[in-house]
Amino acid sequence: MKIFPLTFLVTLLPFFFSLQASGGTISGFVTDSTSGENLIGANVFLEGQLTGNSSNEHGYYVLHPVSAGNYVLKVSYIGYGTASITVTLGPEEKKFLNISLIPEAVSGDEVIVSAEALTNAREISLSQVDLSVQSIRDAPRLGEADLFRTLQALPGVIAESDFSTGLVVRGGNTDQNLIMLDGITVYNPSHMGGLFSNFLLDATRDAQFLKGGFPAEYGGRMSSVLNVISKSGNARKFTGSAGVSVLSSRLSLEVPVGRGSLLLAGRRTYFDQILTLMNKEFPYYFYDFQGSFYQDISPYDRLSVSGYFGNDVLDWNQLNFNLKWGNRTVSANWRHVFSPQLFSNFMIAASNFTTTVLLGGDQGVNSSNDVFDYTVKGDLSYLFSQRNILKFGFEYKKLKFNYQDIYDDRTLFRLLQKPVETSIYLQDDWQIHQRWIIKPGLRLSYFTLNGNKIYAEPRLSVKYKLRSGEYLTYATGIYRQFIFTVQDEYNPTFINSWFAIDQTVPAGQSLHNIIGYERELWTTTVLQIEFYYKTLDNMLTYREKRSSVDEELGTAVKAADFFVPTDGYSYGTEIFVHKKYGKIAGWFGYTLNWVKKSLDNYTYFASFDRRHNINLLFSYEIGRNWRFSLQFNYGSGFPYTRVEASYEERDGGLVKRRLIYGQRNLFRFPSYHRLDIGFSKYFKWLGMKWQFDTQVVNLYNRENVFLYEWDFDKNPAERTIISMLPVIPSLGISTTF
Amino acid sequence: MVFSVILLLMLLVPGCENPAEYTHVPKLTVNSELKEGYPIDSVFVTQSVDITRPYNTEEQRVQQADVRINGVKLAEYDTCRGVYYYPDPDFRVQSGETYFLEVNYQSQTVYSQTTVPQPLQFNAPGVSDGDTVQYIAGTSWFSDEFFTLVWPGYNNSRIYRIISRADSAKPKYFIQDDRPEANVFKGEEKDRLNPGIWWVADTYARINWMYFNWTGWHDIIVSAMDSNYYDYRQGILFGEQGGQNFSPVVKGGYGLFCSSASDTLRIFIVE
Q1: Which of A525, A593, A613, A648 to mutate to test the interface with B (most CBs of B within 10 A)?
Q2: Which of A292, A506, A656, B255 registers the highest number of CB atoms within 10 A of its CB?
Q3: Cα(A232)–Cα(A235) distance, rounded to whole angstroms?
């Protein structure tokens, strides 16, 4: 707690120094002229001045203080022409100026330099990746372009298997990532056991991913933050897109309405229908719907409503088996500019994740897990000057976790929790010198089920400019987590069941330390090297304690009855070379990583400890109408627990061979590698733009090991491989109108 | 330069090689169930075996081991080496009694103990010993029962074992059923075993199609199992180990040493 007063004092210092800053202000929103969409991270500066600013996630910019005079205001953004606007500002005048940029093909390096130089110089983006929808679509994929699968190709991020979209970020469990859709927490954003994520790219504008060291405005998770930002919708004209692939169909529509827009998007799979045609039965499908509506009720106020719902359904009547899980979110936002320097966004939201398993009718199994999240939050920022921006806010979360197993009308297990999680935060983004930027912050969290404790989470990041385009950065912080999913070391689950800590188990805690080096290799290419060390304390691991399938465990279950706190740590190095634009675009990533855990006083390599991991992802424009894309991943083998021996078990007249497992995770699977390629053809037809895609996943049909099985019908027992995805071709066609 | 560094790191930093091959040292394995009201007639003593080596039941049996229960040395069958029995032919396992097992062989010693559950008696409303019961194929674990066995008020055990044993498991008596639901819940036809074993934690069992794979005479045996049996299986549902070892109840070795108290219903199954 000693760091608390120091951090708080540092945070307040600029407030006192900058109180005397005076001068005029130029502010407004930067938008796309063809759609009205806000442009995030657009660079805004006065020609000839040393500093500028970039638009925030709502497209809002502020320049302050600005002396009276005549200026040329420049606004640049990749993929848009640079706007130059003559501005005359009187003494202490506050000018509100919205700017619309015209889309333009990226023509030269100069555009890129001016568009990005200010952002890179002014912001600390350690361990942060901003992904555009286009870069996600350009990557080769299995049927559908998918945000999570693209994230898994970044250094520091690992997929547990080909069948999982879970993000293992720098050794953290998949439940340690705060995943948000427009600020609303999404609790299980995956379909089909983890093969696809929930997010509809047709309705997505940007995705911001922070792998560690994230600032005080984010909390509640120990490892990373993924903030998916939806499109607002086209407020200028009716547009839409549609697509069909071997796995699903999708449609999105954007309709101007009043002083805003309505956006609707949906997707549905149909491999259940395809399998029926092949006389095979697997009645599984999923669907997603997403919608948003907004109105600008004044130049300073926007009201918006958005929602998502999606379900996975496995309805097998023949087996009297029904499995269903899905997310539902709804939110209302009020974006308000109190004054040019004081910007705010308030949200009220509800999120629900439900899993239901029904087997065998009234006398059978009825298992369910419900998560309800009601959130009120406010985020405000006050710009003292371009050099000093103060952010502060609050979050109030009312949660409910209901986890129960009912068998034959008897409740075998019931866990009902209704905690409240409250947080406030304060962070300052302060350029104290031409070469130095510091970002101290403090988050205070309170969780009702864990005693009346207030948890302090100090954060700090620092950026030092070595020379133009070359920086050193450092970030550290304490991160708390109060809710977890069931992590079972022996029987991995494919659907997340969430629960909250109570007074019997401690809150999770992680300490991050990250050092980074960043350098612009060429105007469009950035090199980032990071070293990190992360501790993970009090991760709750599930221990199955029943000996049969129907033992009653009670309805007054406490967390400590089933969960054991485990500790772990992770450290390593990442090298990332990212070429963002041009005919050839993509990245190369390398990670060297160690991840260890301790359970029952035994320390072992975590199941996703991958020593070396290489990712290469790029796309290449061949002429004007073709694009080639490639994704290659090489990884050292994951650890596994080897079977060493067997013994005879006699029970009730049956003789079985039972396995004897050795030390946990002492052995390694063979290395993993996979090559995916894709070709896209662009053409026009019936006045619409079309794209035809053909992809091959696992081009050379590498048999990557998923797990080993033993066949005791052979003597000696024979080990067989259960492998991951084989070679899979896929086709798809899409259009925009 | 960057790629040279990466190559160097990949060459120099290990962590993905497997440890040197490990040879398993065999350990004593003891299997025995002491049944209330019965003699102790089968204590199996074998050895564990490395997974890469062939398994031969005869070779794994441990002959001339020193096997004792409550200090009394057990005799070994002449015709079935590696299997031991209590030498007193009038001896019967008693409910509530604790039996201590110790096995010594060469330099190895293993031991365990069990307390026998109280006698169990169930009710079988609507069905009696010797009755004929019609087999009706179901659709899941929870299909309608043919009859229910109930043992009210018995709380001396945390787990009960239900055994369905056909007198004759010959192919001509096999109940053919390769529907998808049968394959899902019972396993493929070639994998269906006799006897079939299930477990319950409550004081009743609904006996339905899941318990029968052959026609003819069957013994339905309900056994209250001891704490060793419960502990042995704790955390391992459906028998799927998933990287986890069964809890050791035979200290110093492997196997299952337990006790039970049972009741039996004998019926004739027809299709």
Answers
A1: A648
A2: B255
A3: 8
CA angle A550–A556–A561, rounded 5-degree value: 75
Distances (CA, A) of A423 to A282, A367, A392, A448: 45, 33, 11, 12
Residue of B nearest to A321 (CA): B140
* Residues of chain A positioned with their CB less than 8 A from the CB of B246: 649, 658
Provide the 8-state DSSP code for B119: P
- The string of DSSP letters for B176-205 reads ----HHHHHHH--GGG--SSEEEEESSSEE
Tell me which chain B residue has its CA closest to the CA of residue A709: B242
Tell me the C-alpha distance between A113 and A117, whole Å.
Answer: 6
- Paired sense of beta strands B28-35 and B254-270, if any: parallel
Which pLDDT score, from 0 to 100, does residue A194 have? 63
Q: Do A590 and B242 touch (CB under 8 A)?
A: no
**Least reliable range by pLDDT among A302-316, B58-72, B234-248:** B234-248
Respond yes or no on whether the N-terminal peptide bond of residue A65 is cis (omega within 30° of 0): yes
Shortest Cα distance, chain B CAs vs residue A546, angstroms: 6
For each of the domains in chain A, give its residue range(s) and CATH number, in order of start: 3-122 (2.60.40.1120), 128-227 (2.170.130.10)
The 10 Å CB-count burial string (b at 16+, else e) for A491-513 is: beeebbbbbbbbeebebbbbebb
Size of interface A-B (CB pairs under 8 A): 194
What is the model's pTM?
Answer: 0.89
Q: Is B33 on the interface with A (CB under 8 A)?
A: yes
Element at A729 (helix H, strand E): strand A728-736
ipTM of the complex model: 0.93
A552 touches chain B (CB under 8 A): yes
**Residues A275-308: pLDDT tens digits?**
777 777 778 889 999 999 999 999 999 999 999 9
- The CA distance from A131 to the nearest CA of chain B, in Å, is 24
Nearest to A552 among B31, B201, B238 (CB): B201
